[in-house]
Amino acid sequence: MNFGGTIRLNPAGLVVCVLMIVLFLLYLRSGKRPEDPEYVFQKTSLNEKVNLKKLLIAAIQAAESGGREVVKVYLNGNLNEKSKGKTFEGANDPVTDADMRSHCAMYYSLVDQFPDVKIISEEVHAREKCQTKMASATKSTTDSPVELSSNNIEANAMHAESVPVEDVTVWIDPLDATQEFTESLLDYVTTMVCVAVRGVPVMGIIHKPFGDLPQTYWSWNNHGMSSSLLLLNKARSDASETPSIMVSRSHAGTVKSELMSKLGPNIRVIPAGGAGYKVLEVAASNVSAYVHTSKIKKWDICAGDAILRSLGR
User: Fold this and answer.
1) pTM of the full predicted structure?
2) Name one GO cellular component term (predicted).
3) From the annotation, which residues make up the binding site for Mg(2+)?
């Protein structure tokens, strides 16, 4: 036998083998779910689009659903408060069962309806853990029509618009003002959803779950806004000669001294909790501005950014 001969590879066969290996690896990756830690978000076909009107309606529903979970936990009386550590300013960063239950309700309702959209929440809780915490929050609504509540019928009247799914990112804050929530300062508490297209906030939803009646404020840039936001914007307080600046109650940093040095001592600096609450105060012209100079997360400011853009602020 001649073992000294040469082996010739068929180029076409080699290409086929490589393609089969690549397809097999892609198949393995496609089996990952969005909630799996090792999941890597993959862009879908450039031809696939997302209906922004349907996404707006679902986002309103998600914010309101999260708000109901927050209220349930508060009324139950057992917040199960824990600490995620310290903020950049050294303040405690608490998390409660209300944060997690709201996250479960909001995040998975949107993931189930829009599985190809990139959705980012402040909290992380696997679906299995959500099922043990609140079974009703994880029911799939993929095959169910989006129901309209009294707060989002207005959204259904908007003109439909579709954009490539890879251009869309949804930001969720399941419970804004957690610190104030633990102190029963409930007026500061909101749940928020924001839709950004190509990195620009275009839809903002801020839901206030407490008060005589829960209230939802939303806007879609260049399309419209909720009647609640229109009324809030029209009900402006009388302008004061003294500028009033709203700042963070628990993450203020050096903002007060910076404002004094730039605007002078004749300003009112008002501490308040929750980015969502402060944005609504600006929208109502109850304050001149909301200023934050220390670190802040996108889920804190995205919804408010979209709303103030719609109001021309």
Assistant:
1) 0.78
2) membrane
3) 122, 173, 175-176, 300
